[in-house]
Design brief:
Chain C: InterPro entries: MetI-like, MetI-like_sf. The complex is a heterotrimer of chains A (311), B (365) and C (314). In chain A, helix 6 packs across helix 8 and helix 8 runs antiparallel to helix 11. Chain A is 66% helix and 0% strand. The two termini of chain A are 55 Å apart. The longest helix of chain A has 32 residues. Chain A has a single domain, classed as MetI-like (MetI-like fold). Chain A is flat and about 65 Å long. Chain B folds into 2 domains: 232 residues, P-loop containing nucleotide triphosphate hydrolases (Rossmann fold, 3-Layer(aba) Sandwich), CATH 3.40.50; 115 residues, OB fold (Dihydrolipoamide Acetyltransferase, E2P), CATH 2.40.50. In chain B, the strands form 4 sheets. In chain B, strands 6-7-8-3-9-10 form a 6-stranded mixed sheet, with helices on both faces. In chain B, a hairpin with a 2-residue loop joins strand 17 and strand 18. Chain B is elongated, with a radius of gyration of 25 Å. In chain B, 42% of the residues are buried. Chain C is an all-alpha fold and 314 residues long. Chain C has 2 domains: 48 residues, no CATH class; 189 residues, MetI-like fold (Orthogonal Bundle), CATH 1.10.3720.10. Classes of the chains: A mainly alpha (311), B alpha+beta (365), C mainly alpha (314). At the A-C interface, helix 1, helix 2, helix 4, helix 5 and helix 6 of A face helix 3, helix 6, helix 7, helix 8 and helix 9 of C.
């Protein structure tokens, strides 16, 4: 085979790059395409939040006014019994909702995991409430808890004439009436997530536990549940962020009543912002809501993502 | 009558999943202290059989005896077995010590007895320094030892292994293989071991049960399986590089019966069989690459001409592929001997180590 | 180790082993269908199913009764005389204080809100997800993180500034404004969904297309879109359910004549003075819940995948 003689002339010099680097125009299409997202993130999410927090320190009434009054709105907020009630309600609803959702959701998922028949049917039944609006849920349960025709009426007609169960008219227990409705809507989702988590458990673990002679309940309690920690945490965060947003359900089921007994922060915000012509209060209340969420989310985010940054 | 020294006996075991038959009328006797390997490729039923013995799967029919006790309806924990899984299946949130003691604690064993057993097991398996660690902090080999330890502390007669080394890399696999063999020698327990790796089977087993489609093809010690395979499947499965197969027929030549293929005749002198070699019968001749002699190896047996097609030098050995009588066959020779493509060589088969199979039934003749 | 020679009396050991079946347990262990375990499992599941189905039953049953029957019985008693009058009334005649057109007005409003909102929000989010997955640039991930964090921020904190912005542009209270709001707040979940999906597609496809000379939009339209039908279906399910069921944005960003069905429903039931027509209320509730329920029952598994996808963040 012949071989070419290497050329004696040096290679042609490359053309110099044309002046200023135009980084900004690289990947232009993508930047254009992402403009909506950037705008939303910067203006609405970031900017809007900052704006609301800043204006919570003002005296705004019907329209926003830049007259700053320090922590005035917050003092009035925490002096308002209506706000205190809303916070109490949120706490009760939140804690009970978390506990019951997780327990009921997990138990149902564990039962569904037992290779039963009609699994599809059961799942369809448990999950369909999730497809409904909170308004629908609230109204239906309002009707079911109707003292005359609903649960109370039925139990009384069966003989227990002194049976009382009218949460929607009883300020002390109204939040539990809302809780029943909220659980009805939300536990289906928790069950789905738990079931997915259970299905992710290596089957060999179950076999090993059987060979070791571990009874099923102990396997669930001491082996499976500890293994499902990530699923539990995700579910917790999900339920938690949903609790703070509790609004439509209350509006539909009780309109905040009787009186203010079933008031919740989200409703407080709306009422003051758009009906009572007191924007300042509304801003302060929503900033408080933001704070509550931050207290839940920030530790979780640090746990989930902060640890990975190291090493 | 069942031999009293049987550790595990299986009678007429069948397992159907709907229309699919996984195990068919299986019979098997495993002696006390024996290391039995269930060997086969995926789907042959070996894991299914092991799970039935363990009690994790219910058979459709048949019986299982462990130490002469009918355990067909017993829970796994009451069968006197310990099991080691492919994925180790260690309880991830517990320390090694808790992993080992969990079952014993649940059974209500006194604390000092538990401590004694853990000490013994961790001593044998050399996992004492690992007792307070969690499985995530262990290497693959360490995890497998802990898994074996979990079975050890149960103080049982029979150990079941479900492809325990398949998740490890090659080097670790060969290390742990030796350890398992040593373990068997020191403990002398009955061990039933499932694998698809024939090397593991050949090195570890007292007897191998090769399975295909839920039926045991052959149950013998490794040497017999290697040298006297019962059918063509076993012959082709065991041995690497695999056995050469030549299709042809038996013929009569001058009073002697020979094997004829594509016009070439091979003498069958030295081949041991109790069957009648009737001329005209269609057969398959099987010869292993290391049982074929080339050129200077020949010591007077019948030789034929062959042409070298490809050679695969592997360091210690050289595998050469040759064309002979219309077939391509492989021959193993020493690594120092090299052949050029197209070279002509003289080949002779060692008929004492060969196998003849009926072309239709694939059974050994 | 056991002596090999004693293990094999004969060469082919299987035949020697076959003996008679001994007496005693064989085959499958007999199991009672009505075992304690089964009773417990199906019992609890059955009771739970009852709790979940109850409201649906009550809704249907109440909506098919005449008012006198409603007052006579209780919520569980089945109708003795089935009538569809409450349904007709709910749809066409119910009063919401301003007019008595029934829910039909709200229904069509919801449809008018739903269709553009779904289309726009999914279009924007899918392109954004695609850009984030394949065409990253400095800062893109940062903005995405802000977006995701924004998903956790309660809407109330960002609502008023949004009202101001829409007012300035002049679309506050209009359909366009509400469509934009739905697009904005649907972005976090949907963008995450699409980004993860596109990132999971084989990179080789993308590289091959670029080598062939295709650009940003061409790759999106010719390659990514045709491969993404499943995720689009999931996104549609999430958005249809979320937007149809929305109440807060409906009540803040619309005027009375553009109220969506949910807002109207609440007005019909809760702000009626005088006699409460429970049967009409229940019919109205069922009508409002019908659309997402149908989507749910039709989509089955996909729905589960959709909420699981939407529910798992990060």
């Amino acid at each position: 085979m012949s071989r070419t003689v290497p050329s004696a002339t040096p290679p042609r010099p490359l053309p110099k790059s044309s002046g200023r680097p135009n980084q900004l125009f690289r990947n232009l299409n993508s930047k254009i395409a992402l403009t909506p997202m950037i705008l939303v993130a910067a203006v609405v999410f970031f900017g809007g939040t900052i704006w609301t927090v800043i204006y919570s320190f003002t005296n705004s009434r019907l329209l926003p006014r830049a007259s700053f009054v320090g922590f005035d709105q917050y003092e009035r907020l925490w002096a308002s019994s209506r706000w205190i009630i809303s916070i109490q309600n949120l706490l009760i609803y939140g804690i009970l909702s978390l506990i019951f959702s997780l327990v009921v959701g997990f138990v149902l998922a564990a039962l569904m995991d037992q290779k039963i028949r009609f699994e599809s049917a059961f799942r369809t039944i448990f999950l369909y409430p999730f497809a409904l609006s909170f308004i629908v849920t609230g109204l239906v349960w309002q009707w079911i808890l109707n003292p005359e025709f609903g649960v109370q009426g039925i139990v009384r007609s069966l003989g227990w004439t002194s049976f009382t169960f009218d949460p929607l008219y009883n300020p002390d227990i109204v939040i539990y009436g809302i809780l029943i409705a909220g659980l009805w809507q939300g536990t289906g989702l928790v069950m789905c997530l738990m079931l997915a988590g259970l299905r992710g458990i290596d089957e060999d673990i179950w076999k090993a536990a059987r060979v070791d002679g571990i009874p099923m309940w102990r396997t669930y309690l001491f082996v499976v549940i500890p293994m499902m920690r990530p699923v539990f945490i995700t579910t917790l965060v999900l339920i938690g962020s949903g609790i703070v947003k509790l609004y439509d359900l209350v509006v539909a089921q009780t309109s905040g009543g009787p009186g203010n007994a079933s008031e919740v922060p989200a409703k407080y915000v709306y009422d003051y912002m758009f009906q009572a012509q007191n924007l300042g209060q509304g801003f302060a209340a929503s900033t408080m809501m933001l704070l509550t969420v931050a207290i839940i989310i920030i530790p979780w985010a640090y746990l989930e993502f902060g640890g990975k940054k190291r090493g | 009558m069942t031999d009293l020294s049987n550790s595990v006996s299986i009678r007429d075991l069948s397992l159907h999943f709907g229309a699919v038959t996984v195990l068919q009328n299986l019979d098997l006797d495993i002696k006390d202290g024996e290391f039995l390997v269930l060997l086969g490729s995926s789907g042959c039923g070996k894991s299914t059989l092991l799970n039935c013995i363990a009690g994790l799967l219910e058979p459709t029919d048949g019986q299982i005896f462990i130490k002469d006790k009918n355990v067909t309806w017993e829970e796994p924990k009451d069968r006197g077995i310990g099991m080691v899984f492919q994925s180790y299946a260690l309880y991830p949130q517990m320390t090694v010590e808790k992993n080992l003691s969990f079952g014993l604690r649940v059974a209500g064993m006194p604390k000092d007895e538990i401590a004694k057993r853990i000490a013994r097991a961790s001593n044998i398996l050399q996992i004492e320094p690992l007792l307070q660690r969690k499985p995530a902090a262990l290497s693959g080999g360490q995890r497998q030892r802990v898994a074996i330890g979990r079975a050890l502390v149960r103080d049982v007669d029979v150990f079941l292994f479900d492809e325990p080394l398949s998740n490890l890399d090659a080097k670790l696999r060969s290390e742990l293989r030796v350890e398992i063999k040593r373990l068997h020698q020191s403990l002398k327990n009955t061990m039933i071991y499932v694998t698809h790796d024939q090397i593991e089977a050949l090195t570890l087993a007292d007897r191998i049960a090769i399975m295909k489609s839920g039926v045991i093809q052959q149950l013998d010690d490794p040497i017999t399986i290697y040298n006297r395979p019962r059918n063509k499947f076993v012959a082709g499965f065991i041995g690497s590089p695999s056995m050469n197969f030549l299709t042809g027929e038996l013929a009569d030549e001058g009073g002697r019966t020979v094997f004829r293929t594509h016009g070439t005749s091979f003498s069958l002198a030295g081949y041991e069989t109790t069957e009648a070699l009737t001329p005209g019968r269609k057969v398959v001749l099987g010869v292993r690459p290391e049982h074929i002699k080339v050129d200077s190896d020949l010591t007077g047996e019948e030789a034929h001409d062959a042409i070298v097609d490809i050679e695969e030098p592997m360091g210690a050995d050289n595998l050469i592929w040759l064309k002979l009588a219309g077939h391509t066959i492989s021959v193993r020779i020493g690594g120092a001997r090299r052949y050029a493509v197209g070279a002509k060589v003289r080949l002779g088969f060692d008929m004492t180590m060969a196998s003849l199979f009926d072309a239709e039934t694939e059974e050994r003749i | 180790m056991a002596n090999v020679s004693t293990l094999n009396a004969t060469g082919a050991a299987i035949d020697a082993v076959r003996t008679e079946i001994a007496a005693g347990p064989r085959g499958k262990k007999p199991k009672k269908v009505l075992s304690r375990r089964n009773i417990m499992i199906y019992g609890i599941l059955g009771l739970a199913a009852l709790y979940y189905l109850l409201p649906l039953y009550v809704m249907v049953v109440t909506s098919l009764k005449g008012m006198p029957e409603v007052r006579l019985g209780n919520i569980f008693s089945p109708p003795m005389e089935i009538t569809f009058e409450p349904w007709v009334k709910a749809w066409a005649e119910a009063c919401t204080g301003l007019n008595c057109d029934g829910l039909s007005r709200g229904f069509w409003n919801s449809v008018r809100i739903l269709v553009p909102s779904v289309i726009v929000s999914i279009a924007v989010a899918s392109v954004s997800g695609y850009a984030l997955a394949n065409w990253r640039f400095k800062g893109s991930e940062l903005f995405f993180s802000v977006l995701i964090i924004g998903a956790f921020i309660p809407y109330q904190v960002m609502i008023y500034p949004l009202v101001i912005i829409l007012r300035e542009i002049g679309i506050y209270g209009s359909l366009t404004g509400l469509v934009i709001v739905h697009t904005i707040f649907g972005m976090p979940i949907l963008t995450l969904l699409f980004r993860n999906y596109f990132a999971g597609l084989p990179e080789e496809l993308f590289k091959a297309a670029r080598i062939d000379g295709a650009g940003f939009w061409q790759i999106y339209g010719r390659i990514m879109l045709p491969m993404s039908l499943p995720i689009f279906v999931v996104a549609i399910i999430i958005q249809v359910t979320g937007i149809w069921n929305d109440f807060l944005f409906g009540v803040v960003f619309t005027r009375p004549d553009t109220y969506p069905m949910t807002v109207q429903l609440n007005n019909i039931v809760n702000s009626v003075q005088g006699v409460k027509e429970y049967n009409v209320n229940m019919a109205a509730t069922l009508l409002t819940g019908a659309v997402p329920l149908i989507v749910y029952f039709v989509s089955g598994r996909l729905f589960v995948r959709g909420i699981a996808a939407g529910a798992v963040k990060g």
